[in-house]
Specification:
Helices cover about 55% and strands about 0% of the residues. The protein contains seven helices and no strands.
Length: about 140
């Protein structure tokens, strides 16, 4: 009898562990790209180029060449204006070449993607993605 009770307890414990693992995986928000370079390549390189010089494949379609992101610090007297860069990425700061406030406005795009994937905090994950890209642009200086 004790053997049956012990076996039942072990089976129940195993079911609880498996259930908890399934619950954890099912309720976790979708994985975000883990680094700014990956996000930059996905969203920015087509216009700004892999090296950030404004020479991406789509740049030829613009009347005005996309910004050379390797010179951001030079344009700001050696300082890296993280807030301005993030505002240009997420659409809070209008960039003429990005159109009528549509850069595309990546902040809105990121947020919509997160809402479609049912992320728990779409605005927070959007801010994270914008920050990762801005941090990556800093490495291009």
């Amino acid at each position: 009898m004790i053997r049956i009770a012990r076996s039942a307890a072990l089976i129940l414990a195993a079911l609880v562990v498996v259930g908890a693992a399934v619950f954890f995986v099912a309720t976790r928000p979708p994985q975000l790209p883990v680094n700014g370079r990956e996000l930059y390549v996905r969203y920015c390189a087509s216009c700004h180029g892999m090296g950030g010089r404004g020479d991406g494949p789509a740049s030829k379609a613009f009347r005005r060449r996309p910004s050379d992101l390797t010179r951001v610090r030079a344009r700001y007297a050696g300082q890296y204006p993280i807030r301005e860069v993030m505002a240009a990425i997420d659409g809070r700061y209008p960039v003429r070449a990005h159109g009528d406030s549509a850069m595309p406005v990546w902040g809105i795009v990121f947020e919509q993607e997160k809402e479609e994937k049912e992320a728990r905090w779409p605005k927070r994950t959007t801010l994270l993605q914008v920050r990762l890209i801005a941090d990556y642009v800093l490495t291009l200086q």
